[in-house]
C-alpha cells in the first residue's frame, strides 16, 4: 500500500492542494520515520519537531491558490547552512552549541516558499571531506547498505532523502558535496552554475567553489527546489545567470533540450586512478540512452588533468581556515587540523598566483571541449566505500589522498563554475547505485536540467528504494545493514 513518503515532493504538494493530505499530516508522518531510522542512517544532527509542526500549521493556513509547487512539503537544511534559532554545528564539536542569529539566504527562500524543515542534516566537519563521520552525530550511512558511507559533505541530506525521511533536501557543493552523496545513494544531486544561488549573507564566495543546491529523487523535484533557491540577491560577488521562462520546473517537465553534441570521457581528472568497471558501465548506459534520444555522443579528452590538483588543493587548504574559537581548535578532527595547518602556510602571494594559474587552466579546458554542449563522465572512480575506510590508516594525509582518488571528477566543475548533476543511471552487480556526471556550459542550467529530465524519461524513471524504505520502527531495521535490496 502506498504511503505519503512514497510520493515525490511535487506529488505530496499536489495531494495537499487536492485536500487529500495536509502539511501537518506529512510532517507527522516524516517525523515518525526520522524517529524510527534517522539515527540508523545518520541523517540528522538536530531534529526540530516543534518548529516543524508550527511551520506546517502555518503552511496549511495559506489558501491553495497562493501556494507554490512545493508548499507544505517536508525538507531539511544541511548543518553547514546558517539557520536562525536552530543549533548549527558545521559538523564540528568546536561549534556544538552554536545557534546562529540569522538565516542563510537559501533558508529564507525555502521558508518563504512554504517548505517545512524537520531539522539539520549531518555533514563533514566544516565541509572538509567527502564523507560525513564526525563527533556531533552518528555517521551518515548509505540506506542501500548501512556498512557503506552516504558520502559528504551533504551525506546526511542524501541519507535522509534515500531513506524516505524527507522527499527533497538542501545541500551544498564545494568539491562534489552534493553529487558524491547522490551517486552513492541513488539520487539526483544538482550543483548549479556559479552565482545562480546566493551564498549570503556571510562570506566572500570562497573563490566561487561552493554553492547551495537541491538533492532529490527525481529531476522535476530537484528543478522545483532549484526554483525556490535561485532568487537573485543584490550584492552577491557573482552575477547570476538568467532563469529560463517559466522556471526550471517548467524546463524539466518539458524535457526538450533539442539535439546536442555531448562529449564523453572516463579518464579521471584529479588523479591517475583506475576507474571501476561499474562506473564505466553507467557512463556507457547514459551514452546509449542519449544517442537513442537523438544526441551525438563523441569521445573527448577530459578538460583538465591531474596537473591541476596541486592548485586545487591549495584552495582547499585555505578554505579550511574558517574561523574557529582558539580554545576549541583541539576539538577539531585530525583531517581538519591537517588542512588548516597547511592552509596557514599559504602566503597571500601564493594564493594569488594559484588563483591566476587555475583560471588559465580553466580557459584551456574550456577550449578543449568548446564544441560540446554537455560533458558526460563518471561521478566517482569507485561505486561505494565503507564507513571508516577513508580514516582507517589513522593518517589524515592518507585520508586526504584516498578522497582524491575516490573522487577525481566532481571538483573540476566547482573550479570552472559550470552546472553539474549526478544522475542514478547505473547499478553495481549487487544492485547498489552508481551515478554518472552530466555537466553543462556555465549559465546553461536550463539545457542541463532538460537533458537530465529527458534521460530520466528515457529509462522510465529511476526512483528506486532500498529495503529500509519500508521500515516503520527501529525493530524493522537490520543494524548491520547487510543484505538491503531494492523494494
From TrEMBL:
Keywords: Hydrolase. Its EC number is 3.5.1.4. Residues 25-448 form the Amidase domain. GO terms for molecular function: amidase activity. It comes from the Bacteria. InterPro entries: Amidase, Amidase_CS, Amidase_dom, AS_sf. Pfam families: Amidase (PF01425). Belongs to the amidase family. This is Amidase. It comes from Micromonospora luteifusca.
